[in-house]
Amino acid sequence: MAPNHISGVFMSAKDKMTPNHISGVLMGVKDIQIKPNLKRFLMGSGVGRKKKEVTMAKKPSWMMPAVSHGYHTCESYTSPATCGDSDSDFVVAQREQIEELELWFFGVFDARVGDRVTKYMQSHLFDKKPKESHIRGKSKETMRKAFLGARSKVREASEETNGVGSVSAMVIEGEKLVLANMGDYRAVVCKDGSAHQIGTKNKQSTKKIWSHRLFRAKTKTCKSSDLVVGVERVDPDTEFVILASNGIWEVMKNQEAVNLIRRIENPQMASEYLAEEASNRMSRGSISCLVIRFD
Length: 295
Description:
Helix content: 25-40%
Pfam families: PP2C
Strand order of the largest sheet: 1-10-9-6-7
Number of helices: 9
Oligomer: single chain
InterPro entries: PP2C (IPR015655), PPM-type-like_dom_sf (IPR036457), PPM-type_phosphatase-like_dom (IPR001932)
Structural class: alpha+beta
Distance between the termini: 11 Å
Radius of gyration: 26 Å
CATH superfamily of the largest domain: PPM-type phosphatase domain
Domain PPM-type phosphatase: 73-294
Largest sheet: 5 strands, antiparallel
Organism: Malus domestica
Protein name: PPM-type phosphatase domain-containing protein
């Protein structure tokens, strides 16, 4: 679905100032009287400068990409009881309107994290209705704190955070992407057909991946829950973003996932196709996929 886009147009104020025209030849003390007038003419009045500082130009809605999304979850090859996960992933797609600023918050969180990240973002950012400059400047740090807080709560509850996975994305005015992933969950951005991932963790050989999957049913030892947070600019080459759980990435690489769904314009159909493909490949991890498309 495509959200409504809000546009605002701010006109710049132009200073109208007529310099003093001085004719004739001025000598001696009269030269001192010219300098203040000349200074005001070259620099402009203080009032004019103030107006220019607070004036902001905003893109009209037709210049901003439309944001649409779709998500899908399905059962993994191994039953949840065997994997050690008793519940399904928590998936969120939330739109916020703060004055004239449109925000989208998306996420795929494992059962232990649940809605902790979403609640933190709601209470510490969305509900406060901050100014646009604050949102653009503090969104990355707020998301980082949300993930760290959720991980800390999991540690307090179970004293074990290995294998905790989550991934989220915030889209600001269709122009800026704030991405975060933890554990084996991952965010992949497609730019002009090429897959881009924030951070460089979880790069394994095919042999290691298959070895991990073969023995996962017999052991509960999981990968670390390192957190990676990054910012991406949404430019004309940005096509879509994949937010997916470990069950997707256990059986396919980033570029392969991008290639599989790039020609599917409907994000709901794309997410379903990717999740079903992971299931058909007998992925043993949690299979959840959310696709965000920019048109």
